[in-house]
Amino acid sequence: MGKIFCIGQSAYDITIPLSEPIIENQKYRITEKLECGGGPAFNSACLCGLWGADVSLISRIGEDGYGRKLWQTAEECGVDLRHLIPDHEIETPHSFIFANHSNGSRTLFNFPGVQKDIEYQLPEEEVTVILSDGHEPKISLAAIEKYSKALSVVDAGTCRESTLETAKASDYLVCSEDFARQYTGKTIDLQDKDSCEKIFREIEKINGKYVVITLGERGLLYRICGEIRHLPAYPAQAKDTTGAGDIFHGAFAYGLWKELPLVDILKLSSMAASLSVRKLGSQTSIPALMDVERELKKES
């Protein structure tokens, strides 16, 4: 069995829990904060590593304090760091996140760092799954071409040109409701089946293969046997939704790596995301595989 390559952004997250929405021109007294690893590719790689997969992270991590902490966290999660992008001058990307305890919503401020155009040589590895978050489109597209037998997944959270470019070449386009709305200009109404079909078909035209549209607490849409199906979300009392999408995509990549049926992959990913929002933080909220499997058995 080959490797999983997680390609894209790593970031250091500083999460501040609040009990109310942020209001401009106000002062807030902070009594606690949580610092941990973050970023779509980083979180996905950590999940795959913790779940026992052979996973490599292809990302930019600086040589500063945040970078050293990310490096240590990834190693502790079992992530192979031999293939990091050698951008030694970059300031490690980091995010300041305000998590509203009352409803689990979060406000995120991300500093991506100034990236140089780096010549990157893909390693000679046997790769089974490629997961890209769209932040490194050139490397992602080169990987999809080089490892032509690997299944490729794009984590499409926002409809940026780089994400769209990667999505066109990917086998699985797993996008957020925001991406679908930004791309089509239409809002998904689960009560309107014809509208859902039209939106889904429009998204399917991007890559001409598999599409999944995640809807947060409303679940997700997917197509099987020619029919669009709705998988409801597993209920959760959300404490912090930061990283839930990353964890969903990491579990999705893991499911492909394990050669699970699509429906089983979606249930696994949905449960992992559901368990994650019950904890504070992103990488720190990755659930253990045994906990996800135990909760799925309760639902069966």
TrEMBL record:
Q: Which Gene3D superfamilies match?
A: 3.40.1190.20
Q: Which GO terms describe its cellular component?
A: cytosol
Question: Is Transferase found in the keyword set?
Answer: yes
The segment(s) forming the Carbohydrate kinase PfkB domain are 2-288
Q: Which InterPro entries match?
A: Carboh/pur_kinase_PfkB_CS, PfkB_dom, Ribokinase-like
Source superkingdom: Bacteria
Q: Which GO terms describe its molecular function?
A: kinase activity
Say yes or no: keyword Transferase present. Answer: yes
Q: Which UniProt keywords apply?
A: Kinase, Transferase
Instruction: Give the protein name, as stated in the record.
Output: Carbohydrate kinase
Q: Which organism is it from?
A: Candidatus Anaerostipes excrementavium
- Which lineage do the record's taxonomy fields give for this organism? Bacteria, Bacillati, Bacillota, Clostridia, Lachnospirales
